[in-house]
Write a structure and sequence with these properties.
heterodimer; A: globular; B: 356 residues; mainly alpha; ABC transporter involved in vitamin B12 uptake, BtuC; two-stranded antiparallel sheet; 4 strands; 3% strand; globular
Chain lengths: 509, 356
């Protein structure tokens, strides 16, 4: 094949995590002096692939080659020595240290191995900044820079290590329009100097603009790989979500009850100006599934948090069954609202506790009489829910982290259900679980809605939101940009409404 | 102590994981049996009834503090102030027995024994409230907050008497405070009152830990504070409760010591907090929170107590005692780490077997 040389290639790359297969026999070519775009839905395997290249994870099977020689990175340090640099979406910077200190962290320029040679570091930083055509003072504190400038510092960090391959994971997700333009200019310059760039983003128009080669991933499989010529948004979307739509039909005809949840002008200020959630008003009826679609950072999670009472500075009103909701999380749970958080490990589960203890944590008062827990009733209830949700565990007394992702998720759902909620808020309920478990979780959601529960679920998976929702609310930049009935919604409409204002699609096919 | 020592696991490897695990889980108990057995042979008079009573009185003091400390550590915190609370509470008790409360203008209120105990306990709990408020409302790290109250309480104890000892706390029958010494010196059915008190407090604490929503919440807060809050656990209330309980336990110790010695010295209780932490850790409480048991802590307190008393009886120098105590604590934590690694592996194997 003609075109720029291939700097790194993966053949038959497979990565297995406990419970899921994140990559399945993936072939990937990384071309030097070009922008290699990587696209796919959340959980499609993009991050895993990049982690493999950057030495964070090792392939379970398959091989990786650089310039014809097989390579194996057991650590990020090894990958760095091979000239690979990565800029994660979450910036890894020390806000209280200077730009130069950040760039040279862990390989400081020293005199005699002890004394940090600050002038040499500053000079090197200035040289890199000149190359990036940026005027950032090496002695400035990183915490005082704008997000866009911090991104440049991250890139400079990689370049200072002589990175020949640079991976940018959603670099524009936190940037303003002007900063995006600046970044694209930097990318063009780097490309011209022969650096191979891997660019990951959800913003399809951006990809088409900046990319030279595109690789599409779906459920750990490469579904399309070609040069960017002639690629358009529908092609990407088709490869991303596939033709065969996964369907989750409801049991019987839809029967919606009265309104059970109503949010009025809910707003949440962002630290340092602007809004994380900007006057969001929504309503939900009994038995209805409302899907909230949006990209990362669109304010979806924060909106659910506002309903749950996790943000004391949130304004606006939330009504459950016509009565305004106020007070702390415990009070709101008692009023019939339950949240299934996005990050199971951080927010959903108590890792030191058994499955049973996790299941009953929110509803302990149901098992307490005069302050004494009825352990037998508790165990019965835990077993009952474990059976109803088909949690696969040797025993409910096992620690919760011995379960696979999907079963952990079912524990979180079980915990919420044990509070007998009227409204269930689910934040990315299918994140980090495999296809089979996903289908099971969705079946549970359908079933619950059939029983009259109102469900709000947040997702960044187009397919999911289209097939599962009765109504779809699309969020971007903290605002609701569209509310569509399931019948009138299609992928293009939803995707275009979800694009942030800074790079809205002009014509979304 | 009739439990026969379990046979040592001779089969290494994955298959014998569960035997090894059982032994590791009961390690504090095994340690207790070993220590006890050793001194029964090595130290003269170790097994005499009188020595048993004296030793358990010593152990009880540390055990009270360690019970309170266990709850605090399970929530992921630490309470360094307990030693100073012991000192302060002892001084307050001494002051009240000797002088009563001087209201000025020649008026003085004298208290009987029950009132004195209640006031002293209120002071201990009050310091716990201060700790809790600093930690939950002002977001001070537990280490720093309780380090601060450690100094303040110790300073207050010293100020109360200008550094002097309150001697001869015999009480006054006219005021009903002559029974004050019962707490430390009295006994019932041949067993000291302080031991009975320990039994009551330990049973209550174990009950709270296992059978009440509060206990479950304490573990949840330590295991994952964010997750607990999102599950509806009132995290701040839970934290207040554990620091108040720790203060309560410390106040009890202050009372018992003042009563035992019939004197109150402002330096009483120095470094007691470290012994309490050591007992909790030895008993399997995890410093990162979420794990720990009252029973384990009590056994841990006994290991430390028997170790130091037994070494004294053998005539080992106190300098060596300190070294040995330190080594035992380090060994306990090393074994603890090994246990959690093996435990995780066994559970994963079980789960993998299920997946086949």
């Amino acid at each position: 094949m003609s075109g720029p040389p291939i700097g790194l290639s993966i053949r038959g790359g497979t990565k297995v995590y406990p419970g899921t297969r994140a990559l399945k026999a993936v072939d990937f070519d990384l071309r030097m002096g070009a922008v290699n775009v990587l696209v796919g839905e959340n959980g499609a395997g993009k991050s895993t692939l990049m982690k493999v290249i950057a030495g964070v994870e090792e392939l379970t099977e398959g091989r990786m080659e650089m310039e014809g020689r097989p390579v194996r990175f057991r650590s990020t340090g090894e990958a760095e020595r091979h000239g690979i640099g990565i800029v994660f979406q979450e910036l890894n910077l020390f806000p209280d240290m200077t730009v130069a200190d950040n760039i040279f962290i862990a390989h400081e320029r020293t005199r005699a191995g002890i004394d940090i040679d600050r002038p040499a570091q500053a000079a090197a930083v200035r040289a890199v900044m000149r190359r990036l055509e940026r005027d950032i003072d090496p002695d400035a504190l990183v915490g005082e820079l704008s997000i866009g400038q911090q991104q440049i510092v991250e890139i400079a960090k990689s370049l200072a290590k002589d990175a020949r391959i640079l991976i940018l994971d959603e670099p524009t997700s936190a940037l303003s329009a002007a900063e995006v333009e600046g970044l694209f200019k930097v990318i063009a310059d780097l490309k011209a100097s022969g650096v191979g760039i891997v660019y990951i983003s959800h913003r399809l128009d951006e990809l088409i603009r900046v990319g030279d080669y595109i690789t599409v991933l779906r459920d750990g499989v490469v579904t399309g790989a070609r040069s960017m010529e002639g690629v358009d948004v529908p092609w990407i979307v088709r490869n991303m979500i596939g033709d065969a739509s996964k369907d989750f039909p409801r049991e019987g005809p839809a029967r919606f009850g009265p309104e059970v949840l109503r949010a009025e002008e809910v707003s949440l200020p962002r630290q340092g100006g602007g809004w994380l959630v900007d006057r969001v008003s929504l309503s939900l009826r009994e038995g209805e599934i409302l899907g909230i679609y949006g990209l990362m950072g669109a304010g979806r999670t924060e909106f659910l948090d506002c309903i749950m009472g996790r943000h004391p500075h949130a304004t606006g009103r939330v009504l459950v069954g016509g009565e305004p909701l106020a007070g702390d999380v415990a009070g709101r749970i008692r009023r019939g609202v339950a949240l299934i958080p996005e990050d199971r490990k951080r927010d959903g589960l108590i890792g030191t506790m058994a499955i049973r203890e996790n299941l009953t944590l929110s509803s302990l008062r149901d098992f307490a009489r005069l302050g004494r827990l009825d352990l037998r009733a508790e165990a019965r209830a835990a077993l009952d829910y474990a059976k109803r949700l088909a949690i696969k565990a040797a025993s409910v007394e096992n620690p919760v982290f011995s379960l696979s992702g999907g079963n952990q998720q079912k524990v979180v759902i079980g915990k919420a259900l044990m509070t007998r909620p009227k409204v269930l808020l689910m934040d990315e309920p299918s994140r980090g679980i495999d296809v089979g478990a996903k289908a099971e979780v969705f079946r549970v959601m359908r079933h619950l809605a059939g029983e009259g529960l109102g469900i709000v679920f947040v997702t960044s998976d187009l397919d999911e939101v289209l097939s599962l929702s009765d109504r779809i609310a699309v969020m971007a930049d903290g605002r609701v940009t569209a509310i569509l009935d399931a019948a009138e919604a299609d992928a293009a409409k939803v995707a275009s409404a979800a694009a942030p204002a800074t790079s809205r699609l002009e014509d979304a096919a | 102590m009739t439990a026969a020592p379990a046979s040592l696991p001779t089969r290494p490897g994955a298959g014998s994981g569960s035997t090894l695990l059982l032994l590791l889980r009961l390690r504090t108990f095994v340690a207790l049996i070993l220590v006890f057995g050793f001194f029964a042979f090595a130290a003269p008079n170790f097994l005499s009834a009188a020595n048993m009573v004296i030793m358990s009185k010593h152990v009880a003091l540390n055990a009270f503090l360690a019970i309170g400390m266990t709850f605090v550590i399970i929530t992921g915190g630490i309470d360094l102030s307990v030693g100073s609370i012991v000192g302060l509470c002892g001084m307050v008790a001494g002051w009240l027995v000797l002088n009563g409360l001087d209201l000025g203008q020649a008026w003085t209120i004298q208290f009987n024994m029950v009132e004195i105990c209640l006031i002293v306990i209120a002071i201990g709990v009050g310091v716990g409230v201060v700790n809790g408020l600093l930690i939950t409302q002002l977001n001070v790290a537990p280490f720093i907050a309780t380090l601060g109250t450690l100094y303040v309480a110790r300073g207050a104890a010293l100020l109360s008497s200008d550094g002097k000892t309150f001697p001869n706390l015999n009480g006054n029958p006219d005021y009903g405070s002559d029974t004050f010494r019962v707490l430390g010196a009295g006994s019932w059915l041949g067993i000291p009152v302080s031991i009975w008190l320990l039994v009551v407090v330990a049973l209550a604490a174990a009950y709270v830990a296992r059978r009440t929503p509060l206990g479950r919440h304490i573990y949840a807060v330590g295991g994952n504070e964010r997750g607990a809050a999102l599950s509806g656990v009132k995290v701040n209330r839970v934290k207040m409760a554990v620091y108040m309980f720790s203060g309560f336990c410390a106040a009890l110790v202050g009372l018992i010591i003042a009563s035992q010695l019939q004197a109150a010295h402002p330096a009483t209780g120095e470094t007691f907090e470290l012994n309490a932490i050591a007992a909790a850790v030895l008993g399997g409480t995890s410093m990162s929170g979420g794990r720990g048991r009252i029973g384990g802590t009590i056994v841990g307190a006994f290991v430390i107590g028997i170790l130091s008393d037994g070494l004294v009886m053998m005539g080992v120098s106190s300098f060596w005692q300190t070294v040995i105590k330190g080594l035992v604590i380090i060994a306990a934590v090393v074994v603890d780490q090994a246990q959690s690694r093996i435990q995780a592996r066994v559970v994963l194997q079980q789960q993998a077997a299920l997946g086949r």
